[in-house]
Design a protein that fits this description.
Layout lengths: L2 H29 L4 E5 L10 E5 H8 L4 E4 L9 E6 L4 E5 L1 H9 L9 E6 L3 H11 L5 E7 L2 H11 L3 E5 L7 H11 L4 E6 L5 H10 L3 E4 L4 H14 L17 H9 L4
Parallel strand pairs: 6-7, 6-8, 8-9, 9-10
Antiparallel strand pairs: 1-2, 3-5, 4-5
Length: 265
């Protein structure tokens, strides 16, 4: 590859990385009921800042392959890529040859630190279900399990995972009592609380005060569960149900309202 072609590849990678950050906020809009997502053209021309409008699902389809990019019509590079799909406002192109190798090596997913997860839940079926969901996430791996809060504290203390998925209703020690101990033995670990019980605003606030990053009702659709884990564990942009704290966290009324609209509240 010429130096000029390498620079184009670097520009494309920069646009793709910027769009990954945009997509995180797009997922937030998606949960809140808004479909539109404005990302940048990924043509590799660093002077091009043209927006492309698509849904979050369409964006995820593009990102499913490391050598796929979204560009405006007329911005494709015929000697390095082929058009595989035409949409109303943009094209999906696939890199080939040396350009394809550069695109694959520059895929941001290759640079994500693997998120180690501990699942604390007394229901074997739920633990198995969650492991099956996360097996499709290349940046997540379940490294430990526990059937109650007391056992979970010991596992978290030993493994110091990036994320804990914690059930509230368990024998021996429930999630309410285990949560502050988990935060104590592993302060940097994020905690997502799952529960089949309905929680009012007072109890949700209590969970926040105890150190939970997110509450997700059991029974959610798989993409909601995986999306919550991806957000909290990988992006660092935790969308909690706490009141606005000034640090980028949102009030949870929109999230809970969406759950109710989907019939999961």
């Amino acid at each position: 590859m010429t130096e000029s072609q390498k620079q184009v590849g670097r520009n494309e990678d920069a646009a793709r990385t910027a769009n990954e950050a945009i997509s995180v906020e797009g997922e937030r809009s998606h949960i809140q009921g808004h479909e539109a997502l404005a990302v940048l053209c990924e043509c590799g021309d660093r002077t091009c800042h043209e927006p492309l409008t698509m849904t979050v699902d369409e964006y995820e389809e593009i990102r499913s392959a490391p050598d796929h990019f979204a560009v405006l019509a007329g911005h494709e590079i015929l000697e390095a890529e082929q058009v595989i799909s035409r949409r109303d406002t943009y094209l999906i192109v696939q890199k080939y040859g040396d350009a394809g190798k550069v695109a694959t090596e520059g895929d941001p997913r290759h640079h994500l630190k693997t998120c180690r997860i501990v699942v604390i839940d007394d229901t074997p079926e739920f633990r198995f279900y969650l492991k099956m969901l996360l097996s499709m996430e290349p940046s997540c791996t379940v490294v430990g399990e526990a059937v109650n809060g007391a056992e979970g504290i010991e596992v978290v203390d030993e493994l110091k995972p990036e994320l804990v998925v914690l059930d509230l209703e368990m024998p021996v020690m429930d999630g309410w009592h285990a949560l502050p101990h988990i935060r104590r033995v592993s302060p940097t670990t994020h905690v997502i609380v799952f529960s089949s019980a309905m929680l009012d605003a007072r109890l949700e606030k209590r969970l926040t005060n105890l150190g939970a990053d997110r509450f997700v009702p059991k029974g959610c659709e798989p993409e909601v569960i995986v999306g919550a884990i991806r957000d909290v564990a990988l992006s660092g942009r935790d969308r909690t149900f706490a009141e606005e704290s000034g640090d980028g966290r949102q009030d949870g009324s929109d999230f809970r309202g969406t759950e109710q609209r989907l019939g999961r509240g």
